[in-house]
Amino acid sequence: MVVRRKRRTFARRKICRFCVDSDLRIDYKDAKTLRYFVTERGKIVPRRISGNCAKHQRVLTLAVKRARQIALLPFTTVHTL
Prior knowledge:
- There is one protein chain.
- It is built from four helices and no strands.
- By secondary structure, it is an all-alpha fold.
- It has a domain at about 15-70: CATH 4.10.640.10.
- The chain has helices spanning about 15-20, 30-35, 45-50, 55-70.
- About 10% of the residues are buried.
């Protein structure tokens, strides 16, 4: 009987960049910063991947949605009819 052991990979704990650097602000008008938190398909990156804390992820989500409404960020990459 072959026993396979799972290798444990240790992932580094992600830290919220907005908590670390108080100079960084989340602003819906700053599309350059918001693009980092949106995938190429136009979806908002979840906090388990981005490393944001819950408080800043909520603010970030609101900022992305506002930027989409005033056409600073696209809703999707391809619009098909």
